[in-house]
Amino acid sequence: MNFELLIAPHVRQMHAYTPIVPFEVLSQRLGIPVEQIVKLDANENLYGPSPKAVQAMAAANKLHIYPDPDQAELRSAISDYIGIPSEHILCGAGADEIIQLIGMAFLQPGDGLLDLPPTFGMYRWLADITGAQYLPIARQADFSIDVDAVVKRQTLNVKLIFVTNPNNPDGSTIDDATLKQLLALPLIVVLDEAYIDFSSQPSRAAWVQQYPNLIVLRTFSKLLGMAGMRIGYGIFPSAIIEHMWKLKQPYTPTVASSIGAIAALSDRAHLRDNVQRIVAERARMGELLSDLGWLQVYPSETNFLLCRVTNGMTRDRATPGKTVKSYLEQRGILVRYFDRDNLRDCFRVSVGRPEHTDRLIEALREMSETELKSENSKFKNRTEQSFV
């Protein structure tokens, strides 16, 4: 008997989510020591977590005891940080776990999930694992949401729409009027605020108390620099969160990550400094990238920048973004490339420390010179041949 056939059909047909390749694997593949690699491909906070968080986790002495299934202390700390009562908060092993729980709560095979690509790839994954119908509605050229198209795709079986704000990979934001238009539809709006701390736009977390169909997601991976600890949370209306508790496994997040998160939230000065450093470096990096003369740098309210290759900079006219990514990778600098129709001439780069930006710009300037020499050589050969 072929036991693989016992696996659910929608699982057999789905594609696995593609995560970032680990440091160690890339180090071996490139022949570059780990400490010489500049990792700007996953929007991590390269300043790391608060020293208070590190100290608290190192001193944790209850690692042999299961975590509090109610996450009472952690939810209280989050409540104090965001100003929302703790009864609206549910924590998990990263926002990814909360996303999966939302799918379990709302989606059955055949139900519709609206997505707004290009955006975070986990939403497509959620449709795949639940057997839901994946309904992508492409963003417009400026990455804004085509609300009219969303309204036209709305049917009785459409349950969810995911909106990343600010959006990944471009860094754009959604205004109040557009969000209210989406909230007027008879579906659940999941607003993913993974990058909101780097934005001049305020969080809409408080809207959950006003709109019964709004869920807001937050993470400790970005501003708080705890991506490796896998901790995040959702903010839910009262009528929804009681059902989410039924689905959540009891012992996430871990004891260590919870202790670290509570300490990190208490270090407000560190968080303010991190925001200021990253936003300032984002502006500096954007100017330096634009000054190269062959990149269109999109405005961003996040800790990353999306760059479009222009002016025929690379010899690869089909996937110039991939060419840039490969060039940088060989020099130990990692950026993100998306193999999608409207992004093949783009790459996304995380905002790191100033020295990381300097390495990046130096390598891109070298690439400019290499490409220019190649084009000059081609022109010279064509000219010489024309006189033969």
Structural write-up:
By secondary structure, the protein is an alpha/beta fold. Helix 3 packs antiparallel against helix 10 and helix 4 runs parallel beside helix 10.
Which descriptors apply to this entry?
about 400 residues, three-stranded antiparallel beta sheet, about 40% helix, globular, disordered C terminus
Would you kindly provide a brief summary of this structure?
By secondary structure, this protein is of the alpha/beta class. It is built from 13 helices and 12 strands.
Write the layout of secondary structure elements.
Blueprint: H1 9-13, H2 23-30, E1 38-39, H3 51-58, H4 72-82, E2 89-92, H5 94-106, E3 112-115, H6 122-130, E4 133-136, H7 147-153, E5 158-164, H8 176-183, E6 188-192, E7 214-219, E8 232-235, H9 238-247, H10 255-266, H11 268-291, E9 295-297, E10 304-309, H12 320-329, E11 333-334, E12 346-350, H13 354-386
Parallel strand pairs: 1-11, 3-4, 3-5, 5-6, 6-7
Antiparallel strand pairs: 2-8, 7-8, 9-10, 10-12
Unreliably modeled segments: 375-388
Specify the number of helices. 13
Overall 3D geometry? globular
Give average pLDDT, whole number. Answer: 91
Q: Mind telling me the C-alpha Rg? A: 23 Å
Note the gap between the termini. Answer: 71 Å
Largest sheet: number of strands, sense, barrel closure = 7 strands, mixed
Q: H/E element string?
A: HHEHHEHEHEHEHEEEHHHEEHEEH
Q: Share of helix among residues?
A: 40-55%
Order of strands in the sheet with the most strands?
A: 2-8-7-6-5-3-4
What's the total number of strands?
Answer: 12
Q: How big a fraction of the residues is strand? A: 5-15%
Structural class: alpha/beta
